[in-house]
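Re: beginner question about structure tokens

> Can someone show what the tokenized structure looks like for a real chain? I only ever see the sequence side.

Sure, here's an example I had lying around. Input first:
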Amino acid sequence: MFDWIYQGYTRVVGRTLDEVPWSARRELGRARILAAARRQFSEHGYDRATIRGIAAAAGVDPALVTRYFTSKEQLFREATDTEPGEPAGGTAEGLVESLLAQLGSKLDEEPVAALALLRSMLTRRDAAEQARKAIAATGNEVSGAIDADNPGIRASLIGSISTGVIVGRYILRLEGLEEASTAQILELLRPCIRSLVLGDGESSRCDERSAGAQRDDDVAVPGPAALTRRAEAVDRGRQARGQQQPGEVKPAPFRC
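And the corresponding structure tokens:
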């Protein structure tokens, strides 16, 4: 990331780093440290990441890290300060596509800032609170755009699904999910996200499944009268033979 910033600066300004003004050089140095910190926190979590390791990854002296960020806690807060996604709005279908697009961008490119927060929240209360606030802020915006019953629950479910996909793909590295393409994941999630946003389809699909099951039952399972007649016929046959069928096990008497 730092090389890209530096190369872009030199292409536009036409200066080497030594010729860059101090204020610009300071911003480049901060960007370089932040990029290294995001990667270190995302791979190791807050507890295992160190100032020395971050400085080594950024190619700077550890004293420069503390000079720019004063403490590891401050560096973590800035490294995990993710930008909000696109605002929810427009049509319900547009909201579905917006939510899927935001998740897709995290599947296409590893979201190191979000991963740094997610990997650290299990051991640090402040990281967990920061993650909760970020997810809740997005959920509040999404719930306001959902025109269905229980919008808050629906928005929380959408946020939980998205977070779970990110954790499963990058942290737990679940088989199947890790190798799946972004298009495959989004296509499988689309009906679920759409159902949560629009609030339609659940009852109709359940009704269709129930109707299909009932049709199967009508064909495969005899009615009560037919079962009674069949049982009576079996009893009459056994009485006529006066003996138990080979291999038959008599039921034990019922006891409380």
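Each token stands for a local structural state, so reading them left to right follows the chain. Residues 22-48 form the longest helix (27 residues).
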